[in-house]
Specification:
The protein is built from 16 helices and nine strands. The strands form three sheets. A four-stranded antiparallel sheet has the order 6-8-7-9. The chain has a three-stranded antiparallel sheet with strand order 3-5-4, with no helix packed on it. A two-stranded antiparallel sheet has the order 1-2. Helix 12 crosses helix 13. The chain is 45% helix and 10% strand.
Amino acid sequence: MAFISKDFRSPGEAWVKTKEGWERLKVLECSGKRKRHNCEGSNCHDSGATESKEGGGGVEYQVQGGMPPHYHITLRCTREIAGFNGLSEAVKRLDFRRSVRDRKRFHYICAFLLLVSNKGIASLPGSAQRQLLQMVEEVASHVNDSQQHLNVLRGLALKLDHIVDQEKQKCWGKPLGSTYLWQEHVATIKRINDVANQIQIRAPDPKAKPQLHELPEECVREIILCIADHRDLESAAQAWDTMAKLVCEQRIWRELTRFHFNQQQINIILDLEKFKKMGEEKDWKKIYHQLRRTYGVNDDYQFAEVLALCSLCCCLFWPSDGHPCIMDQSPDFRQRVEEARGQLAKLAQPVPPAQFLKYFSL
């Protein structure tokens, strides 16, 4: 809540009033850009801010500088450290909403939203519910603008409809919690469904050059080599005769196999009797499917960028943006880390969406 006047019960936080409601200043500072907000009252004061009086009686607030999106988490509570990880604050500080329009982070955000939807949005705090639905609405806007990933949006929309139907059947037809907040959620879900239903994939401009079928086979082969899912390869083979010929090449399936599985797993499958026939060329398509049935495919490889956890300061961050680390702030600590680097594990560990959700009590 916002504290209008000085109060001994205040936790010492600086609060800012934005269009979406009151927010803590330290959350708004986690952005690579300078942000401006219209504040009201006397609780927008901070030493790192500039204020200017305006005719409306409000205060224009400007955050000086900006930090890359990051979030410090508490991995385990001790007598000295007692912390709580809030999903709503983490989503804001890691800038999930703006990251939807980053093509490297889009699939990661959507996978996170699907996992949260499966656990049940209605069981989350009200601020977290609002944040997640705003993210889904941002996904709908991005899909509408880019004309891509329509299947992802429809999957999210169907999941939200299922959640609404489930909540209507609870407590004699009324969901638990704030009635006004749930009405807002239903209106947001309706807007998302409207956007998903009215999207029509526009045909490419027939005058645009060069078109896909005009590219040489070498270029089309390089495009196919970027596909990391065997289902997409099979769909591409059905779209065009040239692609069907290229998908049948052993190199395509060999590279796909080496991308998803390590050499030890491949050697185990190659040692099987049906793959040991002398004088015959390896069928990498069969090898890939045998590996997939034996070990399964790691879905985390579909993400171009994954959140990372710093093992030194327990900070979640996007690798492309970096984070303020204790090693950068203390030269002595940096020297000790460099001396012991051979004994330490990776300083930054990838955090897939399922692992990210385990840090919160959902």
